[in-house]
Amino acid sequence: MIGFDATGEGAALLACAPALALAIDRLLGEPPLRWHPVAWMGRYLGWAGARLAPRVDALRGLSDARVFWLAALSWCAAAAAIFAASWLVQQWVLAQPAWLAALALGLCLKPLLAWALLHDEVLAVEHALAESLPAGRARLARLVSRDVSSLSAAEVRESAIESLAENLNDSLVAPLLWFALLGLPGAALFRFANTADAMWGYRGVRSLNGVARDWTWAGKWAARADDVLAWLPARLTAALIVLLGGARGWRGLRGEAARTPSPNGGWPMAAMARALGVRLRKPGVYTLGEGGHTPEPADTLRACALGARTALAATLLACAAVLAEVAA
């Protein structure tokens, strides 16, 4: 981990930070928005995006190239500030006694993870579907950005399972991997990149604060940066799902993952489809797990259980990686 060496008990305590963060995530949930670092990132991105992405109803102003480079510069400046601030926090934390440093690291890492919220929201979609299809659609709308108004019950369930698999990487495995590699600055940098992709990384028109804006060039840097930082974690997530879910193995997974537009999202989604033996579709875009059955309520529960096992395994791997690094 950046700037710290420890041995014996100190190294063991620091290695517990990822596990502590996961425990806090389950027991306490998300911090209030006013204290949430990801919410701070979102506020900056909303403010900057409103000034970078051109309105579709306005006269053409800056060239595409200028929009791209201004957005890239805004992303890089914020990323550098977040990395530096996280490094300073970590330096202060690591100057404390080992037990306090481990506790503080877990508390600081927690807001950069969001597994419990994802798990509970996916289960809530299934519970809402048991009440009515409109209730299930309304609950799913909290998870996905796509139009849910015309989805069938099966499509709602498919979307929920896809969201669980894809966000298992974005909300847990990837931050843990970057924490293991670069400490808090790495986890914070990834969360910023992922949040920027969610807010800016579109290939056309999308509304921000009620105003339709063209993100074709304003969001291109953010989308590519997220692709780079999520490349390895997405494949690690898929590997864990394969190992823990009794999937049909790694063979053929690459080709199936390539059916999705995302270079990374298809990996955990395809692995989850194979592990559950279900078909996951986005009509007109892709089908994963061809030959599998249409997801049923029990499959949502199985997906959440497999996600929980994967989350635990990823956390233990992160603990082991941190222990090896700080004790080296």
Strand and helix layout:
Elements: H1 8-15, H2 17-28, H3 37-52, H4 64-94, H5 98-109, H6 115-131, H7 133-140, H8 153-182, H9 184-200, E1 205-208, E2 211-214, H10 220-245, H11 253-257, H12 266-276, E3 280-282, E4 286-288, H13 297-327
Antiparallel strand pairs: 1-2, 3-4
Helix pairs in contact: 1-5, 1-13, 2-5, 2-13, 3-4, 3-9, 4-9, 6-7, 6-8, 6-13, 7-8, 8-9, 8-10, 8-12, 8-13, 9-10, 10-12, 10-13
Largest sheet: 2 strands, antiparallel
Outline, from the CA principal axes?
globular
Question: Which stretches of 5+ consecutive residues score pLDDT under 50?
Answer: none
- Return the structural class: mainly alpha
How do the SSEs run, as a string of H and E?
HHHHHHHHHEEHHHEEH
Q: How many domains make up the 3D coordinates?
A: 1
Instruction: Return Rg in Å.
Output: 20 Å
Compute the separation of the termini in Å: 10 Å
Tell me the β content. Answer: under 5%
By DSSP (H or I, 4+ residues per run), the number of helices equals 13
What average pLDDT do the residues reach?
A: 92
How are strands sequenced across the largest beta sheet?
A: 1-2
User: Percent of residues in helical segments?
Assistant: 55-70%
**Record field, number of beta strands:** 4
